Amino acid sequence: MTTIIDGKQLAKDLNAQTKDRVASLAQRGIVPGLAVIIVGDDPASAIYVRNKHKKAGQLGINSVVRQLPATISQADLLQVVTEYNQDPAIHGILVQSPLPAGLDEQAVVAHIDPAKDVDGFHPLNVGRLFANLPGHHPVSCTPRGIMTMLDSLHTHLRGKHAVVVGRSMIVGRPMASMLLNADMTVSVAHVYTKDLSALTQQADVLVVATGVTHLIKETDVKPGAIVIDVGMDRDENGKLTGDVDFDGVVKRAGAITPVPGGVGPMTIATLMQQTVDLCEWSEERGTN
Ligand SMILES: Nc1nc(=O)c2c([nH]1)NC[C@@H]1CN(c3ccc(C(=O)N[C@@H](CCC(=O)O)C(=O)O)cc3)C=[N+]21
């Protein structure tokens, strides 16, 4: 029988743990603070930000949403980041992606205090993950959430073959690093990969993050494989669907994530978890 990995339930479990940690911090008079910076009026971004704000509130995290006009200058945007960098009540800073044209997203991310980089996108934190350096550091939330999902299956990853399809800064690259750090043999495929199917059929763990609707079909998957679908695509009827043809692949996979209700909810739960991580690490350093 194929395990359907229930991202909603796992997110609920993780959020319950996060809520407990927030309660312990409250007993010491500490409230984790999350600043979400949103620039312009992209409707999809507005929905994501509202969801994050709502979830933070439910868990007792103090979330501050800063809505800025699309016309803001790069210098003024950096100044807002500086303000939160210097605010001791804020432990995590997130700049909602994408930024409007004309703003330099990489420069903005690099301006965030690495100790408050709740998305794990700052080059220092990217480097720490890539090098598998010891010590606390934030990492990209979607792949971290996927590692939590893999943990929930209690399968041995060491020495097994992981294939990551996609090489983005946000998912593919950090995902490959985390799986490598978990002692897996990792292949990274992308748009130029030749005979993708021959590679994906070798995967014990297959993570797909391409934005190509139903790229992966039943015959592309090894029997019993764990298949993680990071896709957030719209089908011909405008319905949310993934990069994996779920109805076909579910027949062959050992475990599979649905879309929606898979990786998405875990991303938000992991963001909340990491906000509390940053708050606790700040307390350890004596900066709360
Ligand atoms: N700085 C930054 N950090 C981000 O983490 C970030 C970002 N920018 N920009 C946009 C993407 C996208 N993202 C999602 C999170 C949760 C769901 C999610 O919960 N999805 C639900 C369904 C939602 C629906 O029905 O539309 C699910 O898959 O079940 C989706 C997408 C975070 N992002």
Automatic annotation (TrEMBL):
Keyword annotations: Amino-acid biosynthesis, Histidine biosynthesis, Hydrolase, Methionine biosynthesis, Multifunctional enzyme, NADP, One-carbon metabolism, Oxidoreductase, Purine biosynthesis
Pfam families: THF_DHG_CYH (PF00763), THF_DHG_CYH_C (PF02882)
Enzyme Commission number(s) from the entry: 1.5.1.5, 3.5.4.9
InterPro entries linked: Aminoacid_DH-like_N_sf (IPR046346), NAD(P)-bd_dom_sf (IPR036291), THF_DH/CycHdrlase (IPR000672), THF_DH/CycHdrlase_cat_dom (IPR020630), THF_DH/CycHdrlase_CS (IPR020867), THF_DH/CycHdrlase_NAD-bd_dom (IPR020631)
Reactions performed catalytically: (6R)-5,10-methylene-5,6,7,8-tetrahydrofolate + NADP(+) = (6R)-5,10-methenyltetrahydrofolate + NADPH; (6R)-5,10-methenyltetrahydrofolate + H2O = (6R)-10-formyltetrahydrofolate + H(+)
One GO CC term, this protein: cytosol
Pathway of action: One-carbon metabolism; tetrahydrofolate interconversion
GO molecular function: methenyltetrahydrofolate cyclohydrolase activity; methylenetetrahydrofolate dehydrogenase (NADP+) activity
Domain Tetrahydrofolate dehydrogenase/cyclohydrolase NAD(P)-binding: 140-280
Residues covered by the Tetrahydrofolate dehydrogenase/cyclohydrolase catalytic domain: 5-119
Any one of the GO BP annotations: tetrahydrofolate interconversion
Similarity section: Belongs to the tetrahydrofolate dehydrogenase/cyclohydrolase family.
Biological role stated in the UniProt entry: Catalyzes the oxidation of 5,10-methylenetetrahydrofolate to 5,10-methenyltetrahydrofolate and then the hydrolysis of 5,10-methenyltetrahydrofolate to 10-formyltetrahydrofolate.
Protein name listed in UniProt: Bifunctional protein FolD
Organism: Levilactobacillus suantsaiihabitans
